[in-house]
Amino acid sequence: MALKTPQQYIDSLRDGRVTYWDGERIDDITTHPRFQVPIGLVADDYRYDDAEYGALRRYTTEDGSEAHRIYQIPRSEGDLGDRVELMQHTSIGTLVTGVYMALMSVKDDVARVNPMYAENIERMYRHCRDNDLRAAEVITDPKGDRKRRAHEQDDPDLYVRIVERRKEGIVVRGAKLHITAASLVHELVVMPTKGMRQEESDYAVSFSIPVNAPGVKIINRSFAPAELNAFDYPASSHHSVPEGFVVFDDVFVPWDRVFLAGEVQLASKLAQSLGLWERTGGLVEAVRMSELFVGLAQLVTEMQGKDQDPIAQNSISELITYAEMLRMALDYSCRHYESTASGMVFPNTLGINVSKYYYAANYHQTVRYLHDLGGGLVLTLPLENDLRNPESGKYIRKYLHTKPGVDVETRMRVYNMIRDLTADAYGGWQFVVALQAGGGLPAQRVMMNRTFDMARAKRRALRAAGATLPDAASAVTTPQR
Questions:
Q1: Is residue 198 one of the residues assigned to a domain?
Q2: pTM to 2 decimals?
């Protein structure tokens, strides 16, 4: 067991994986221009000797060896705090490895149905941890006609399914969509997209398979072209990671890598476990992003000489409210943690779902305040090459002047950050991700209804209404959901 170096991680991607991008089959992603930024992001997470974050990335396992903290199973509030801190300084290409937290959180439930699956979860978790591998969350099926169940589709492969059961394992076919960093990891951890009925047992399937397994094919797309420069695109040029359209073309999965193969009662349990950790990651990013919005809003306001303007101050107050609500919500969810029977600690389920809902439901309105403060220059600002050109640059520096002490280039960088984060490459991606990552708003509503203490709320309502009879609460039933 040994921690990998950044170069060892890069070398490990030369394994024959089948990857496509823009109609091109790419045999070696480590040398292709489109993959340089995303691979560099994940490689940075392998810098264990880094003075700033190296110690945060490492933890000591139960056998005394070192592993990446993304694999540390939280056992206390302190462990959970360390994980949240790690999430603030880690690429999405590493964070998706948190899929193993989801699996480990339901391992006890899985064991009660099939002990072999629970043993497989533990084995694969240790295999990836001890070999310093990365894994992707592979959950969303194409789904076809949403009015019909998985087994009722025109094409039976519109949900990933088992097409053959052998003595040595299973054969699966189908596709999964929106798989962040699929081409950058080592293992694809497939989870059911939702609960399944008994007649859909072939679709109740979960497993882990190497990215280079025969029959696995990944079609990539990113919000950011490879050639973006850091001045005009300060977010997109540094943070782009491709989304994968992952195809399983009759892929053989050995039994020791299978976590679920037909036991429909576990399908929703596995799907929901991943949702919690995905939403936690989304909330951590929301806290970071919302604070950035406040800083950008204040800077652009000061640069315009409008820092005393009451309308501008009101808009910034709204941004502060949004940022602080998210920060406090994350803090609450970690302080009021829950735990499994085996002692694994995880964020408060209701707290995370309410917080993620608030973040997503108010994101677009919040961005509106930032756009209103920035004005039209958010979209129409000239490019860096025009600034650097002596002939055009002199006009840009002349007419973008606002007041003494405001550097024109700095002002342009602030505007470029606003545009890139909220109205261009990264921003377009973020507008959708804010709503859809970890499931759309309906998914959070479902979990809020399931986890809110409705019985206590009803008791309090009855007492407030003066209905104090001992059997009064039993007369009020909770609607079926």
A1: no
A2: 0.89
